Amino acid sequence: MTNKQVVEKYMDGFNASDHEKILSCLTDDVTWDMPGFFHLEGKEQFDKEIESDASDGKPVITTIRLVEEGNIIVAEGAVKCKMKNGGMLDAVFCDVFHFEKGKIKHLTSYLMHNKQTMPQTFTG
Q1: SS3 content of the chain, % helix, strand, coil (to 5)
Q2: Is 85 helix (H, G, I), strand (E, B) or coil?
Q3: 44 pairs with which residues across the strands?
Q4: Who wins on pLDDT, 75 or 114?
Q5: Taking Cα atoms as reference points, which of 89, 63, 90 lies closest to residue 76?
Q6: Neighbours of 97 (CB within 10 A)
Q7: What is the pLDDT of residues 20-42, one digit of tens each?
Q8: Which of 75, 83, 79, 82 has the alpha carbon at shortest distance from 60?
Q9: Fewer CB within 10 Å, N- or C-terminus of the chain?
């Protein structure tokens, strides 16, 4: 399986909320950073973040582009998800996947809410 295929499998796993599918794409000592939000280490911590306590149901993730260089895949896309508070997560993302031996070793996720869905205080 190519690194791009692993990322596609990972994204499919999130769309289905399939923990096993997602975790099968990761090294045991995986790290996941979302700057300004969290830093996770290991599959156990990663597994707990797959379905957020704030979300209500499965996300809809659309991958726009995958770019590969060496052992790094950059994925651009969009995510939408209904939230338990009645709102919607409507955002774009850029994920940077670092691979080791065909599995995701480190992930950095950059997430930005679409302007039309951001709280008034963030629109300047």
Answers
A1: 25, 50, 25
A2: coil
A3: none
A4: 75
A5: 63
A6: 24
A7: 999 999 999 999 999 988 999 99
A8: 79
A9: C
- Mean predicted confidence (pLDDT) in 50-55: 75
DSSP string, 27-65: EEEEEEEETTTEEEEHHHHHHHHSS-TTB-S--EEEEEE
Q: What is the CA radius of gyration of the chain?
A: 14
Q: Are strands 26-34 and 103-113 parallel, antiparallel or unpaired?
A: parallel
Report pLDDT for 116: 59
User: Quick one: average pLDDT of 110-122?
Assistant: 65
Q: Is 0.85 topped by the overall pTM?
A: yes
Phi and psi torsions of 85, nearest 5°: -80, 5
Listed by start position, the domains of the chain span 3-119
The C-alpha atoms of residue 26 and residue 116 are separated, in whole angstroms, by 34
Residue whose token pair is 């990663």: 46
Longest CA span, the chain: 45
